[in-house]
Write a structure and sequence with these properties.
single chain, alpha/beta, Immunoglobulin-like, TIM Barrel, eight-stranded parallel barrel, 12 helices, 26% strand
Length: 494
Amino acid sequence: MKFKVYFSLIILITTSACMNSSKETITVFETSQSGHQLTERADFQLEANPSSIKLNFDQKFQTISGFGGAFTEASAYLLNQISPENRTAILEAYFSRKGANYSLTRTHMNSCDFSLSNYSYTPVAGDKNLEHFSVDEDKQDLIPMIKDALATTEDGFRLFASPWTAAPWMKDNNDWVGGKLLPEYYDTWALFFSKYVDAYNAEGIDIWGFTVENEPHGNGNNWESMHFSPEEMTDFVQNFLGPQLEADGKGDLVILGYDQNREGIKEWVDVMYKDEASSKYYDGTAIHWYESTYDYFPEALQYAHKKAPNKFLIQTEACVDSEVPAWKDDSWYWKKEATDWGYDWREDEKKYLHPKYAPANRYARDIIGCLNNWVDGWVDWNMVLDRQGGPNWFENWCVAPIIVDPQADEVYYTPLYYIMAHFSKYIRPGAEVIGVDSSDKDLMVTAAKNPDGSVAVVVFNEGMEQKSFELKTSASTKQISINPQAIQTILITN
């Protein structure tokens, strides 16, 4: 009798498991310090007492805008210095479905630090009506890169633009660096945005929106910048930029305020979203990550969301800065050897925010932390740089996910490229972030349900030991192991 009961139980469990497995396909992709590069895994080393990761489909959070990187003159110039074959391969790596499939991108208006020189679309001083406006400077490198990316993508991508500065003649210091926009040119500067949209549209490029100003606090007066206080930016948006775009039939363009580090976000959103009038033309808030190499500032992100729960909250720039990239040395990206802008000169009381860090870990940790705190889009900085971390006129060296050697016509896909792809490839625009309950606090986890019904679960193990866990969905349970120093995307399809 006991045998019959036991045998029946086995049949029931087996049948249930088969039914569950027939409903779902679970595929695991891993990038790791040990050498995996978005590698499909099925060789799990299971443990006796795994932790659990349970998906909660009833908990729904923000809708995803996308993931991607920035089109800069530096990246575009480099693509024109390498062979057509490698150029095509890089564009496919970023924009095709078989690649990272970037869906949200950024570019600069006028020059920035990752341009080859200072330039403006409005070079004629006193041209208040912008009769001499021209984007010809972008036609050699930048515009062709964007157009070729558009020709490569199968799913399309959103593109927003950011100015670093107006032309010096519009500013109170008559310089590319620092200073403020003169009040008599507020109308002119608003018109600048509208003319930019028309000029790029004439090239076959649609603009999704703008950030009002890249880093309105400035950058230590090192490269192109223009300062705004929260009150000044809101005045410009409320009384000039928003009405100008609306009057020109461009009222559907997205306007993102702030566009600097997360720590300062509270004072900005308090002003931006003070009342209906101040918030009318703002569609969301843009943020950067440079305030710290380890903290993603969840409290600040939560505050920004609560202040404007129906508006975008987009990470618009991030990179490994103040570093010359390691060439074809994957291990460097997993070691805590990188330093950042604040490592040497930050105030003593804030130096703790800038310890040495592993670039791969920083990317994985930050993106997951952002997704778990209402951020709906995450955009990297330069897509392509050279072995020096340039070129740029200021010699402000940084790291990009893809590094090239134009002289040797070689391409290096760093671990950062694969980490970005873990999100951009599998979490698509329109996806909803859903709840996750994880019993292992040493694993960072996020999950999102895509418009096609598939679910992407991203797990990051920053530790030095393998971890094993049971992934519990609404239909099945699957035991999975993740290597030390590794990130996984678990794709669940029906």
